[in-house]
OBSCN protein (Sakesphorus luctuosus), 86 residues
Amino acid sequence: KEPAATIVEMLKDVTSYEGEDAVFECRLSRETMQDAQWFLGDVPLQSNEMNEIRVQGTRHSLILRKVTLEDCGSISFKVGQHTSTA
């Protein structure tokens, strides 16, 4: 069983204007096959035309495209028992 990855670089708060993209990034202690999940409030996010979820090695990114006022709220990234929120 692989050791659990931890979040070594936490999410930072992002301020965006309507119509802009908002980018959130965090970094894990190591690459992992563990399930990593992004949330807007309590809603799990999927990669689609409005949200782009990327994984590049230990760096996990979420891009919210052309944000609206409805996108205002807390973004969370969870992996295993670890969570970061911005």
Strands lie at 7-9, 22-28, 36-40, 43-44, 51-56, 59-64, 75-79, 82-85. The radius of gyration is 13 Å. The first strand starts at residue 7 and ends at 9. DSSP finds no helices and eight strands in the chain.
